[in-house]
């Protein structure tokens, strides 16, 4: 069975939609607000959805390429987020904890009062040892590859 461009485009677009719906469900139903890096990962999916939907209406390999790059960007940000969660490297100072041992009481108080509620370096939920960022890395890479397959497929 040969998969045509339209089917692959619809599949990858639907997968990005599913990830966004899942993220919104975790946020609004599960009570797990996203951190800054979680939002950044969503932007890639919004791009993939937009370019994928446009490619369904206006068949164009450039749009598919942009959708693939968008999904790949989400995967890359997810990989970065994974490293932050696993303490392999520091994340943005606006959403990770830092060493506070050298701060005065007033500086520490100011830091606490200006700190975001949701930290990027904590894993609020996991499945089989994989965080949502880890799962996004894998799912987004698959979506990007499906968009690339759509580029290469026959119309």
Layout: helices, strands, pairs:
Blueprint: H1 5-28, H2 36-57, H3 61-85, H4 105-114, E1 126-127, E2 130-131, H5 132-152
Antiparallel strand pairs: 1-2
Helix pairs in contact: 1-2, 1-5, 2-3, 2-5, 3-5
Task: List descriptors.
155 residues; mainly alpha; 5 helices
Model description:
This protein has 155 residues and is mostly helical. It has five helices and two strands, in the order H-H-H-H-E-E-H. It has helices spanning 5-28, 36-57, 61-85, 105-114, 132-152; strands spanning 126-127, 130-131. The protein has a two-stranded antiparallel ribbon with strand order 1-2. A hairpin with a 2-residue loop joins strand 1 and strand 2 (130-131).
Helix content: 55-70%
Radius of gyration: 18 Å
Structural classification: mainly alpha
Order of strands, main sheet, comes to: 1-2
H-E order: HHHHEEH
> Which blocks of ≥5 consecutive residues have pLDDT under 50?
none
How many strand segments? Answer: 2
The dominant shape is elongated
Mean pLDDT: 88
Distinct helical segment count: 5
Strand content: under 5%
Largest sheet: number of strands, sense, barrel closure: 2 strands, antiparallel
Task: For the record, give the distance between the C-alpha atoms at the N and C termini, rounded to a whole number.
Answer: 14 Å
- The oligomerization state is single chain
